[in-house]
Amino acid sequence: MSTIFSKIISGEIPAYKVAESNDYLAFLDVNPLTRGHVLVIPKKETDYIFEMEDEGYVGMWIFAKIVSQGIKSVFPCRKVGIAVVGLEVAHAHIHLIPLNHVHDMNFEKPKLSLPADEMNKIAEDIRESIARITNSN
Questions:
Q1: Phi then psi for 46, rounded to 5 degrees?
Q2: What is the pLDDT of residues 55-111, one digit of tens each?
Q3: φ and ψ at 73, to 5 degrees?
Q4: What gap in Å lies between CA 74 and CA 58, rounded to an integer?
Q5: Residue 99's CB: how many other CB atoms inside 10 A?
Q6: Where would you find the membrane-spanning parts of this chain (predicted)?
Q7: Strands 94-99 vs 79-83: parallel, antiparallel or unpaired
Q8: What is the C-alpha to C-alpha distance for residues 70 and 64, in angstroms, rounded to an integer?
Q9: Cα-Cα-Cα-Cα dihedral of 14, 20, 26, 27, to 10°?
Q10: Number of domain units in the chain
Q11: Active site residues
Q12: Which range marks the domain in which residue 103 is found?
């Protein structure tokens, strides 16, 4: 089951990475709903999030929590929303989306198309924010 996410993990396809551990990867959605829209994935290929082993499942949510704190500090918002859909890519993933309004998480609305330099800056800002958060704990 080689998906686009597997190719991102292996480095075959580039991504705007914001955080990485031995088991998980977080990167910007290339077709975001809002600026700062991040995807969190396990490195172990699993199609359906609820088929993950308990330890990996819990670990991914803890990783997502840390990433969400970095997003929120870069993109002041009311909350960082989460969504697990899993229909477009057969690889478990969590969407982290800065929210100020409920319609910010409407997957049917037109996606943003941001230039590469802006995507690089967003990824860098989130990475730096996560580093500050994790170093202060």
A1: -145, 130
A2: 999 999 999 999 999 999 999 999 999 999 988 898 999 999 999 999 999 999 999
A3: -75, -25
A4: 25
A5: 19
A6: none
A7: antiparallel
A8: 10
A9: -30
A10: 1
A11: 93
A12: 4-136
Strand, coil or helix: 126: helix
Q: How far apart are CA 49 and CA 137, in angstroms?
A: 28
Sign of dihedral through CA atoms 10, 24, 112, 69?
negative
Look up residue 17 and give its amino acid. K
| 130, two tokens | 């996560």
Closest Cα partner for 34 from 83, 90, 87?
83
Both structure tokens of 75: 């993109």
Query: Do you know the residue count of the chain?
Result: 137
Cβ-contact 97, 33 below 8 angstroms: yes
Query: In this structure, what CATH number is given to the domain that contains residue 31?
Result: 3.30.428.10
Single pTM value for the model: 0.94
DSSP letters for 59-78: HHHHHHHHHHHHHHHHS--S
Residue 49 identity (one-letter amino acid) = I
